[in-house]
Task: inverse folding
Protein backbone atom coordinates (compact mmCIF):
# COMPACT_ATOMS: atom_id res chain seq x y z
CA UNK A 1 0.00 0.00 0.00
CA UNK A 2 1.24 3.45 -0.90
CA UNK A 3 1.83 5.65 2.12
CA UNK A 4 1.95 9.41 1.60
CA UNK A 5 4.25 11.12 4.05
CA UNK A 6 4.65 14.61 5.43
CA UNK A 7 7.47 16.13 3.36
CA UNK A 8 9.10 17.47 6.52
CA UNK A 9 9.79 13.90 7.67
CA UNK A 10 11.39 12.60 4.46
CA UNK A 11 14.93 11.29 4.67
CA UNK A 12 17.62 12.67 2.40
CA UNK A 13 17.35 9.51 0.31
CA UNK A 14 13.55 9.83 0.01
CA UNK A 15 13.89 13.44 -1.10
CA UNK A 16 16.54 12.53 -3.65
CA UNK A 17 14.45 9.72 -5.13
CA UNK A 18 11.33 11.87 -5.34
CA UNK A 19 13.28 14.66 -7.06
CA UNK A 20 14.93 12.22 -9.46
CA UNK A 21 11.56 10.75 -10.43
CA UNK A 22 10.25 14.26 -11.14
CA UNK A 23 13.27 15.02 -13.29
CA UNK A 24 12.83 11.81 -15.23
CA UNK A 25 9.14 12.54 -15.94
CA UNK A 26 10.18 16.00 -17.07
CA UNK A 27 12.90 14.61 -19.31
CA UNK A 28 10.54 12.11 -20.93
CA UNK A 29 7.86 14.73 -21.62
CA UNK A 30 5.23 13.04 -19.44
CA UNK A 31 5.38 15.80 -16.84
CA UNK A 32 4.31 18.51 -19.23
CA UNK A 33 1.19 16.61 -20.29
CA UNK A 34 -0.07 17.01 -16.72
CA UNK A 35 0.52 20.77 -16.91
CA UNK A 36 -1.39 20.95 -20.17
CA UNK A 37 -4.34 18.99 -18.81
CA UNK A 38 -4.57 21.14 -15.71
CA UNK A 39 -4.53 24.40 -17.66
CA UNK A 40 -7.15 23.12 -20.09
CA UNK A 41 -9.53 22.64 -17.18
CA UNK A 42 -8.54 25.94 -15.52
CA UNK A 43 -9.54 27.74 -18.69
CA UNK A 44 -12.73 25.82 -19.47
CA UNK A 45 -14.19 25.42 -15.96
CA UNK A 46 -16.63 28.34 -15.57
CA UNK A 47 -19.14 29.36 -12.94
CA UNK A 48 -22.04 29.35 -15.39
CA UNK A 49 -20.98 26.51 -17.71
CA UNK A 50 -19.57 23.01 -17.46
CA UNK A 51 -17.08 22.78 -14.61
CA UNK A 52 -15.15 19.72 -13.51
CA UNK A 53 -11.69 20.42 -12.11
CA UNK A 54 -12.25 23.70 -10.31
CA UNK A 55 -14.91 25.95 -8.80
CA UNK A 56 -17.28 23.03 -8.51
CA UNK A 57 -18.04 20.07 -6.22
CA UNK A 58 -15.72 17.77 -8.16
CA UNK A 59 -12.69 19.96 -7.38
CA UNK A 60 -11.68 17.43 -4.73
CA UNK A 61 -12.35 14.09 -6.51
CA UNK A 62 -10.95 15.49 -9.78
CA UNK A 63 -7.66 16.46 -8.15
CA UNK A 64 -7.57 13.18 -6.22
CA UNK A 65 -7.74 11.27 -9.50
CA UNK A 66 -5.23 13.66 -11.09
CA UNK A 67 -2.76 13.10 -8.24
CA UNK A 68 -3.22 9.32 -8.34
CA UNK A 69 -2.35 9.36 -12.02
CA UNK A 70 0.70 11.50 -11.36
CA UNK A 71 1.81 9.31 -8.47
CA UNK A 72 1.49 6.26 -10.72
CA UNK A 73 3.74 7.99 -13.25
CA UNK A 74 6.32 8.71 -10.55
CA UNK A 75 6.17 5.11 -9.36
CA UNK A 76 6.68 3.83 -12.87
CA UNK A 77 10.06 5.55 -12.66
CA UNK A 78 10.81 4.49 -9.07
CA UNK A 79 8.38 2.17 -7.24
CA UNK A 80 9.67 3.39 -3.88
CA UNK A 81 8.40 6.93 -4.48
CA UNK A 82 5.08 8.25 -3.18
CA UNK A 83 3.62 11.75 -3.20
CA UNK A 84 4.63 13.71 -0.11
CA UNK A 85 2.30 16.32 1.29
CA UNK A 86 3.18 19.84 2.45
CA UNK A 87 1.40 20.86 5.65
CA UNK A 88 1.58 24.60 5.05
CA UNK A 89 0.00 25.30 8.43
CA UNK A 90 3.19 23.95 10.03
CA UNK A 91 5.97 24.64 7.51
CA UNK A 92 4.94 28.17 6.83
CA UNK A 93 7.97 30.28 6.00
CA UNK A 94 10.38 30.59 3.09
CA UNK A 95 13.05 29.19 5.43
CA UNK A 96 11.25 25.85 5.83
CA UNK A 97 13.20 22.79 4.70
CA UNK A 98 10.84 22.19 1.77
CA UNK A 99 12.51 25.18 0.07
CA UNK A 100 16.08 23.99 0.73
CA UNK A 101 18.49 23.29 -2.16
CA UNK A 102 18.32 19.54 -1.47
CA UNK A 103 14.58 19.46 -2.13
CA UNK A 104 12.49 21.99 -4.06
CA UNK A 105 14.85 24.96 -4.00
CA UNK A 106 13.94 28.40 -2.75
CA UNK A 107 12.23 31.61 -3.72
CA UNK A 108 13.02 33.52 -6.90
CA UNK A 109 15.48 36.37 -7.23
CA UNK A 110 14.12 39.91 -7.17
CA UNK A 111 15.05 40.87 -10.71
CA UNK A 112 12.96 38.32 -12.59
CA UNK A 113 11.58 35.83 -10.09
CA UNK A 114 13.92 33.11 -11.28
CA UNK A 115 14.55 30.21 -8.89
CA UNK A 116 18.34 29.97 -8.67
CA UNK A 117 18.98 27.02 -6.38
CA UNK A 118 17.87 23.42 -6.06
CA UNK A 119 17.19 20.79 -8.73
CA UNK A 120 14.66 22.87 -10.67
CA UNK A 121 16.76 26.02 -11.07
CA UNK A 122 17.32 27.34 -14.58
CA UNK A 123 21.05 26.85 -14.18
CA UNK A 124 20.60 23.09 -13.85
CA UNK A 125 18.97 23.06 -17.30
CA UNK A 126 16.66 20.20 -16.34
CA UNK A 127 13.43 22.10 -15.74
CA UNK A 128 12.52 24.23 -18.74
CA UNK A 129 8.99 25.62 -18.52
CA UNK A 130 7.56 24.42 -21.83
CA UNK A 131 3.81 24.81 -21.19
CA UNK A 132 3.71 28.52 -20.52
CA UNK A 133 1.53 31.56 -20.90
CA UNK A 134 4.30 34.14 -21.18
CA UNK A 135 7.78 34.31 -22.60
CA UNK A 136 9.63 33.13 -19.49
CA UNK A 137 10.82 29.54 -19.66
CA UNK A 138 12.30 29.24 -16.17
CA UNK A 139 10.72 28.32 -12.85
CA UNK A 140 9.68 31.38 -10.85
CA UNK A 141 8.60 31.87 -7.25
CA UNK A 142 7.92 34.80 -4.95
CA UNK A 143 7.38 33.13 -1.60
CA UNK A 144 5.27 35.20 0.79
CA UNK A 145 5.40 38.31 -1.38
CA UNK A 146 3.74 41.39 0.04
CA UNK A 147 3.72 39.98 3.55
CA UNK A 148 1.11 37.36 2.69
CA UNK A 149 0.63 34.61 5.26
CA UNK A 150 -0.16 30.96 4.75
CA UNK A 151 -3.37 29.65 6.32
CA UNK A 152 -3.18 28.72 9.99
CA UNK A 153 -4.30 25.48 11.59
CA UNK A 154 -7.12 27.41 13.27
CA UNK A 155 -8.33 28.56 9.86
CA UNK A 156 -8.13 25.01 8.56
CA UNK A 157 -10.11 23.77 11.56
CA UNK A 158 -12.79 26.39 10.96
CA UNK A 159 -13.28 25.00 7.46
CA UNK A 160 -13.12 21.35 8.54
CA UNK A 161 -15.94 22.14 11.00
CA UNK A 162 -18.38 22.83 8.16
CA UNK A 163 -20.88 19.99 7.94
CA UNK A 164 -22.17 20.45 4.41
CA UNK A 165 -19.91 19.37 1.56
CA UNK A 166 -21.17 21.86 -1.00
CA UNK A 167 -24.23 23.92 -1.85
CA UNK A 168 -26.04 25.41 -4.84
CA UNK A 169 -25.17 27.07 -7.11
CA UNK A 170 -22.19 24.65 -6.96
CA UNK A 171 -19.59 27.17 -8.11
CA UNK A 172 -17.17 29.78 -6.76
CA UNK A 173 -19.96 31.53 -4.87
CA UNK A 174 -21.15 28.45 -2.97
CA UNK A 175 -21.26 28.09 0.78
CA UNK A 176 -19.97 24.84 2.28
CA UNK A 177 -16.78 22.89 2.92
CA UNK A 178 -15.57 22.46 -0.66
CA UNK A 179 -15.62 26.12 -1.64
CA UNK A 180 -14.09 27.30 1.63
CA UNK A 181 -11.31 24.74 1.17
CA UNK A 182 -10.85 25.67 -2.49
CA UNK A 183 -10.74 29.27 -1.33
CA UNK A 184 -13.14 31.33 -3.39
CA UNK A 185 -14.99 32.18 -0.17
CA UNK A 186 -14.17 32.74 3.48
CA UNK A 187 -10.72 32.29 5.02
CA UNK A 188 -9.39 30.96 1.69
CA UNK A 189 -7.17 27.92 2.03
CA UNK A 190 -6.15 26.33 -1.31
CA UNK A 191 -6.17 29.44 -3.50
CA UNK A 192 -4.17 31.43 -0.97
CA UNK A 193 -1.34 28.90 -0.99
CA UNK A 194 -1.04 29.15 -4.77
CA UNK A 195 -0.75 32.93 -4.42
CA UNK A 196 1.70 32.69 -1.49
CA UNK A 197 4.14 30.64 -3.60
CA UNK A 198 3.74 32.98 -6.57
CA UNK A 199 5.42 32.58 -9.95
CA UNK A 200 3.91 29.78 -12.04
CA UNK A 201 1.96 28.55 -8.99
CA UNK A 202 -0.26 31.64 -9.24
CA UNK A 203 -1.13 30.94 -12.88
CA UNK A 204 -3.21 28.44 -14.81
CA UNK A 205 -0.07 26.42 -15.48
CA UNK A 206 0.61 25.98 -11.76
CA UNK A 207 1.75 22.31 -11.98
CA UNK A 208 4.95 23.61 -13.59
CA UNK A 209 6.14 24.07 -10.01
CA UNK A 210 6.61 20.66 -8.38
CA UNK A 211 5.25 22.08 -5.12
CA UNK A 212 1.84 21.91 -6.80
CA UNK A 213 1.74 18.17 -6.07
CA UNK A 214 2.75 18.54 -2.42
CA UNK A 215 0.19 21.31 -1.94
CA UNK A 216 -2.62 19.31 -3.48
CA UNK A 217 -1.63 16.18 -1.61
CA UNK A 218 -2.29 18.16 1.58
CA UNK A 219 -5.59 19.57 0.27
CA UNK A 220 -6.51 15.96 -0.50
CA UNK A 221 -5.58 14.94 3.04
CA UNK A 222 -7.80 17.71 4.43
CA UNK A 223 -10.71 16.24 2.48
CA UNK A 224 -10.02 12.89 4.16
CA UNK A 225 -9.86 14.61 7.56
CA UNK A 226 -13.19 16.28 6.87
CA UNK A 227 -14.75 12.92 5.97
CA UNK A 228 -13.51 11.42 9.24
CA UNK A 229 -15.00 14.31 11.22
CA UNK A 230 -18.36 14.18 9.46
CA UNK A 231 -19.18 10.54 8.83
CA UNK A 232 -22.81 11.38 8.04
CA UNK A 233 -21.98 14.08 5.51
CA UNK A 234 -21.53 13.07 1.90
CA UNK A 235 -20.53 14.37 -1.50
CA UNK A 236 -23.09 16.67 -3.05
CA UNK A 237 -24.91 17.08 -5.39
CA UNK A 238 -26.38 13.61 -5.65
CA UNK A 239 -28.02 13.66 -9.07
CA UNK A 240 -29.64 15.68 -11.83
CA UNK A 241 -27.62 18.88 -11.54
CA UNK A 242 -26.85 20.88 -14.67
CA UNK A 243 -23.23 21.68 -15.58
CA UNK A 244 -21.62 19.97 -12.59
CA UNK A 245 -20.50 16.44 -11.77
CA UNK A 246 -23.01 14.63 -9.59
CA UNK A 247 -21.96 11.81 -7.28
CA UNK A 248 -22.35 9.13 -9.95
CA UNK A 249 -21.36 11.11 -13.06
CA UNK A 250 -18.07 10.44 -14.78
CA UNK A 251 -15.39 13.11 -14.83
CA UNK A 252 -13.51 14.36 -17.86
CA UNK A 253 -10.86 13.76 -19.08
CA UNK A 254 -10.90 10.16 -17.87
CA UNK A 255 -14.63 9.49 -18.43
CA UNK A 256 -14.39 6.27 -16.43
CA UNK A 257 -14.24 7.57 -12.88
CA UNK A 258 -16.92 9.22 -10.73
CA UNK A 259 -16.77 11.18 -7.47
CA UNK A 260 -18.27 8.11 -5.79
CA UNK A 261 -15.25 6.11 -6.94
CA UNK A 262 -12.92 8.64 -5.31
CA UNK A 263 -14.54 8.92 -1.88
CA UNK A 264 -12.36 6.27 -0.23
CA UNK A 265 -8.72 7.19 -0.61
CA UNK A 266 -7.59 4.09 1.30
CA UNK A 267 -8.27 2.00 -1.81
CA UNK A 268 -5.30 3.83 -3.34
CA UNK A 269 -3.05 5.09 -0.53
CA UNK A 270 -2.95 5.98 3.14
CA UNK A 271 -1.34 8.81 5.06
CA UNK A 272 1.45 8.58 7.59
CA UNK A 273 -0.95 9.96 10.21
CA UNK A 274 -4.51 9.01 11.04
CA UNK A 275 -6.63 11.04 8.66
CA UNK B 1 -4.62 36.01 -31.52
CA UNK B 2 -5.68 34.73 -28.14
CA UNK B 3 -3.83 31.70 -26.95
CA UNK B 4 -7.02 29.83 -26.34
CA UNK B 5 -7.35 29.55 -30.08
CA UNK B 6 -4.86 26.72 -29.78
CA UNK B 7 -6.49 25.34 -26.72
CA UNK B 8 -7.69 21.78 -27.09
CA UNK B 9 -9.41 20.49 -23.98
CA UNK B 10 -9.25 16.80 -23.28
CA UNK B 11 -11.78 15.03 -25.45
CA UNK B 12 -14.66 13.11 -24.06
CA UNK B 13 -18.42 12.83 -24.12
CA UNK B 14 -20.48 15.20 -22.07
CA UNK B 15 -22.78 13.68 -19.57
CA UNK B 16 -25.88 15.31 -20.91
CA UNK B 17 -27.21 17.59 -23.57
CA UNK B 18 -24.03 18.29 -25.47
CA UNK B 19 -21.59 17.06 -28.00
CA UNK B 20 -17.96 16.92 -27.08
CA UNK B 21 -16.39 17.94 -23.82
CA UNK B 22 -15.07 21.36 -23.04
CA UNK B 23 -14.99 22.35 -26.70
CA UNK B 24 -18.75 22.22 -26.69
CA UNK B 25 -18.71 24.21 -23.48
CA UNK B 26 -16.80 26.93 -25.24
CA UNK B 27 -19.24 26.98 -28.11
CA UNK B 28 -22.19 27.15 -25.76
CA UNK B 29 -20.61 30.02 -23.89
CA UNK B 30 -20.19 31.85 -27.17
CA UNK B 31 -23.89 31.42 -27.91
CA UNK B 32 -24.84 32.63 -24.48
CA UNK B 33 -23.04 35.88 -25.16
CA UNK B 34 -25.34 36.62 -28.06
CA UNK B 35 -28.49 35.95 -26.07
CA UNK B 36 -30.22 38.37 -23.73
CA UNK B 37 -28.10 38.59 -20.61
CA UNK B 38 -30.98 38.04 -18.25
CA UNK B 39 -31.79 34.72 -19.86
CA UNK B 40 -28.24 33.51 -20.39
CA UNK B 41 -26.49 34.44 -17.17
CA UNK B 42 -28.94 35.62 -14.57
CA UNK B 43 -26.29 36.19 -11.93
CA UNK B 44 -23.85 38.06 -14.16
CA UNK B 45 -23.32 41.70 -13.25
CA UNK B 46 -23.34 44.44 -15.88
CA UNK B 47 -20.54 44.54 -18.41
CA UNK B 48 -17.69 46.70 -17.11
CA UNK B 49 -16.62 49.88 -18.85
CA UNK B 50 -13.99 49.61 -21.56
CA UNK B 51 -10.48 50.88 -20.86
CA UNK B 52 -7.37 51.69 -22.85
CA UNK B 53 -4.25 52.87 -21.08
CA UNK B 54 -0.51 52.48 -20.78
CA UNK B 55 0.38 50.89 -17.46
CA UNK B 56 4.02 50.42 -16.50
CA UNK B 57 4.94 50.74 -20.14
CA UNK B 58 2.43 48.16 -21.39
CA UNK B 59 -0.64 48.98 -23.47
CA UNK B 60 -3.63 47.40 -21.79
CA UNK B 61 -7.07 47.41 -23.36
CA UNK B 62 -10.38 45.95 -22.36
CA UNK B 63 -13.89 46.05 -23.69
CA UNK B 64 -16.77 44.11 -25.13
CA UNK B 65 -15.57 41.63 -27.70
CA UNK B 66 -17.28 41.43 -31.05
CA UNK B 67 -17.97 38.66 -33.46
CA UNK B 68 -17.80 35.82 -30.97
CA UNK B 69 -15.89 32.86 -32.32
CA UNK B 70 -12.35 32.50 -31.13
CA UNK B 71 -11.75 36.16 -30.53
CA UNK B 72 -14.33 36.71 -27.85
CA UNK B 73 -13.76 36.43 -24.13
CA UNK B 74 -15.62 33.18 -23.85
CA UNK B 75 -15.67 33.08 -20.10
CA UNK B 76 -16.07 36.78 -19.50
CA UNK B 77 -19.51 37.44 -20.85
CA UNK B 78 -18.14 38.77 -24.13
CA UNK B 79 -15.43 40.94 -22.59
CA UNK B 80 -11.84 40.70 -23.76
CA UNK B 81 -8.57 42.09 -22.45
CA UNK B 82 -5.27 42.52 -24.29
CA UNK B 83 -1.73 43.41 -23.25
CA UNK B 84 0.30 44.91 -26.08
CA UNK B 85 -2.24 43.42 -28.46
CA UNK B 86 -2.00 39.86 -27.16
CA UNK B 87 -5.13 38.47 -25.56
CA UNK B 88 -5.07 37.90 -21.83
CA UNK B 89 -7.44 35.05 -21.01
CA UNK B 90 -9.79 36.47 -18.38
CA UNK B 91 -12.77 35.06 -16.57
CA UNK B 92 -15.50 36.62 -14.47
CA UNK B 93 -16.48 34.89 -11.24
CA UNK B 94 -20.07 34.45 -10.14
CA UNK B 95 -19.67 37.23 -7.58
CA UNK B 96 -18.61 39.66 -10.31
CA UNK B 97 -14.86 39.62 -9.59
CA UNK B 98 -12.26 38.83 -12.24
CA UNK B 99 -9.24 36.58 -12.67
CA UNK B 100 -6.85 35.88 -15.52
CA UNK B 101 -4.65 32.99 -16.52
CA UNK B 102 -1.72 34.98 -15.08
CA UNK B 103 -3.34 35.65 -11.70
CA UNK B 104 -5.71 32.75 -11.53
CA UNK B 105 -6.16 32.28 -7.80
CA UNK B 106 -6.59 35.89 -6.65
CA UNK B 107 -9.78 37.65 -7.81
CA UNK B 108 -9.83 41.41 -8.28
CA UNK B 109 -12.70 43.83 -8.77
CA UNK B 110 -12.44 44.84 -12.43
CA UNK B 111 -10.93 43.77 -15.78
CA UNK B 112 -8.65 46.81 -15.59
CA UNK B 113 -7.34 45.63 -12.23
CA UNK B 114 -6.80 42.11 -13.58
CA UNK B 115 -4.87 43.55 -16.56
CA UNK B 116 -2.70 45.70 -14.30
CA UNK B 117 -2.03 42.74 -12.01
CA UNK B 118 -0.91 40.70 -15.03
CA UNK B 119 1.42 43.51 -16.16
CA UNK B 120 3.06 43.60 -12.74
CA UNK B 121 3.43 39.84 -12.74
CA UNK B 122 4.86 39.74 -16.27
CA UNK B 123 7.75 42.08 -15.37
CA UNK B 124 8.12 42.99 -19.02
CA UNK B 125 7.70 39.49 -20.45
CA UNK B 126 5.35 39.10 -23.43
CA UNK B 127 2.17 37.06 -23.32
CA UNK B 128 2.53 34.12 -25.68
CA UNK B 129 0.05 31.73 -27.25
CA UNK B 130 -0.17 28.70 -25.02
CA UNK B 131 2.25 26.00 -26.05
CA UNK B 132 0.67 22.59 -25.73
CA UNK B 133 2.45 19.30 -25.44
Result:
Amino acid sequence: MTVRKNQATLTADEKRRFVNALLELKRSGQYDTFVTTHNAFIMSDTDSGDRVGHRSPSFLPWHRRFLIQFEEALRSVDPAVTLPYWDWTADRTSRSSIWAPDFLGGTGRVRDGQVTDGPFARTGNRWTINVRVDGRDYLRRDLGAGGRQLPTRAEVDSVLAMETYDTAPWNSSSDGFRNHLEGWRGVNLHNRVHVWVGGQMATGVSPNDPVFWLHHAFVDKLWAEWQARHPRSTYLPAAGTANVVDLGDTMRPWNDVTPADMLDHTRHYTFDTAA
Amino acid sequence: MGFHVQHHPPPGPRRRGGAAGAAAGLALAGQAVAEPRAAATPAAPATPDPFDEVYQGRRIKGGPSHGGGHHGGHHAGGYSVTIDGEELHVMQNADGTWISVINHYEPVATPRAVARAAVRELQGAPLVPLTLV
About this structure: Strands of chain A lie at 2-4, 269-271. Residues 99 and 106 of chain A are 5 Å apart (CA to CA). The radius of gyration of chain A is 18 Å. Residues 59-77 of chain A form the longest helix (19 residues).
